[in-house]
Amino acid sequence: MIRSSRLRLAGLLIGTMMSISAKAQVAPSPEAQAANDANSPLTPTIMLSAHNYYIPSLNGVPDRDADVTLFRGLLPHLTFGKPQLFRFTLPVSTTPTFPTGSKTGVGDLLLMDLVMFPGKKVSFGVGPVVVAPTASSQRFGNGKWQVGASGAVVAPQSWGLLGGLAIYQHSVAGDNDRSDVRLLTVQPIAFYNLPKGFYLRSSGIWNFDLKTGNHYVPVGAGVGKIWAITKKVRLNTFAEPQYSVIQKGIGAPKWQIYAGVNVQIAAR
Prior knowledge:
- By secondary structure, the protein is mostly beta strands.
- The chain is built from two helices and 15 strands.
- Helix content is 12%, strand content 59%.
- 32% of the residues are buried.
């Protein structure tokens, strides 16, 4: 019952965004379109990113903090006549040890390929997910090969951007001594464009461990800035504090600061 409720919540969220975008819509100005392209997860640009979560407060772990840096890349390509986006994410985490200290290590590598279905008002992307057990130790990964599916939806607005990204992954092979994995993440995104390349943003990733029942739902509010370095290169920086309105499980973030930089290079 709980799992089905979570899946219904994710579906309701994406359905609501699609319904909003389907109503009367004014085309974005060139400046707004450039900002929307810089923030859309479905923009076909080569991109290298470094994103960081600093977590000063952990559920059930008083007076300790943690840190996760995500190195991400995006490569657009055309395969079997379909435009696609290949993504990778490699985490490097620092977690507390007990009674004092901390350790840093590399996590599991996530690979994702989205087949794109562009539209005038709403664009979609769907595709497979593979997670490789590349973690430097058991502390930083699940020890399992995982497969799954991902989906993204984006609805540009005259004032900004609405969208969402969902990823489901489950284990299929790996260390038999490690627990099986069933994870769902849902990321609603909303951007509001301001003059001179500034924008407001909210992009908390809702995490649901379907195996253990642990979960946390962060809601964020932050600001970003886009710089046009050349005609083909953009720099996008942001900072977004996020508070978990719901959390269950030892070590789940109570609140965190999400910050990062994206370097985007036009593919053409």
